[in-house]
Specification:
Length: about 110
């Protein structure tokens, strides 16, 4: 098992397991921060919210998520999540397909990343 913490402008993620076809990680989004609006060509993602409150956007449809919420995000679906509570939003994510951090196509990003 690996535990690799990667700091991001919105918080951080921790890789728990990763191989060529699956990855399992924890995503921690700081209050008032958000992931880029993005999609992936080579993987599906399953998200499970452990704690916090957020607004999940998938293909321009907004939904509030909180503890116990889950969602399947399929390849090519545009998505982001915003932390809208005073405490961190914690999500466990499983990636299935080709789980590479190179498979991120950013459509919008408040931090100016491409």
């Amino acid at each position: 098992m690996i535990e690799n913490k990667v700091n991001k402008p919105w918080g951080y993620y921790v890789d728990y397991f990763r191989n060529e076809s699956v990855a399992f990680k924890k995503i921690v989004v700081a209050p008032n921060e958000e992931l880029s609006y993005q999609y992936h060509s080579d993987r599906d993602e399953f998200w499970y919210v452990v704690s916090g409150t957020g607004i999940l956007i998938v293909n321009d449809d907004e939904t509030y998520v909180g503890e116990g919420s889950s969602v399947l995000i399929k390849k090519e679906e545009k998505h982001t999540v915003k932390c809208v509570a005073p405490k961190r939003l914690v999500i466990y994510e499983m990636q299935v397909g080709r789980p590479s951090e190179d498979d991120i196509v950013r459509l919008e990003d408040k931090y100016g990343r491409n």
